[in-house]
Amino acid sequence: MTPKTTQIFYFSISGNSLALAWDISKRIDAELISIPSVLDKKTITPDADAVGIVFPVYYASNGYGIPLIIERFINKLEGIDSKYVFAVCTHSGMAGSTIEKLQKLIKARGGELAAGFSLNMGSTDMPKEKQQKLLQNQKTKAETISAYVLAQKKGKYETRGILRKIAYALPLHLFIKPVFSRRYRKLSNIKQHLPFIELVQFADRSYQVDPQKCKGCGICAKVCPVDNIKMVDNRPEWQNHCETCYGCFLWCPNEAISGEIVSYNDRRHHPDVGLSDVIKGD
Ligand SMILES: Cc1cc2nc3c(=O)[nH]c(=O)nc-3n(C[C@H](O)[C@H](O)[C@H](O)COP(=O)(O)O)c2cc1C
Question: Which of 56, 82, 215, 256 is such that its CA lies 20 to 30 A from the CA of 175?
Fold first, then answer.
């Protein structure tokens, strides 16, 4: 078998990042590797000349952008100094400075982010026509990214410009951050003033299971990318290190999981992606 020269590591819950990663991998003949499936390794050493990372944006509106699982993954990367590293984030309209933050994380591992792209996949409540348009955009974007990567070009970073950064800084500190933190403190029933990103991991305290609807199938536990769900007496119990990806809520076949924060999202997923594709990504 010819060795692959590109490996694409991906994380995806509602399927947007996976569908895009699929599309790119077909065009450039890359090997696809799910991030949750390698995360228990002590170190992760990619075995290819080029390395891609495809993931969703989380909490850019609150000054973050990179999901915790992606940060943990990057902090385990070894031997990327001589590789061509590219990244793509999918989002619903606000990627903020995610790519710039990623650049710093990769640099701290001794590598260089050659290019960082972002793709708006829209929000869950958008009309059908808009959804079709965004799916078409996905194909165009996959084509653009693939050509860029195959040519091993460098220097494209789809991130927030300086003017937007300035315009956003004040409302972020005065309003958005405190509002988000208050909301998650209440949801998590935590009195301490923990940093937001620590607080969100306790948001699972607000999830509820409808005993009439839950059949004890354990799909929620299988779909959880960070093994945060234990099945106890055929019911899910969350372990308070939640990624807040809402995979348990989204993929429960009986719609048995609810709660203020999960219900704020909806159960839609990418039309090309099914449950078996997101279970640990294998
Ligand atoms: C916890 C959480 C936080 C999110 N934060 C943002 C955000 O700040 N900005 C944004 O544009 N989209 C945000 N999104 C939407 C996702 O980035 C978007 O739907 C993405 O395409 C999902 O990727 P996936 O389908 O591969 O899981 C968030 C989604 C979740 C679950």
Answer: 56
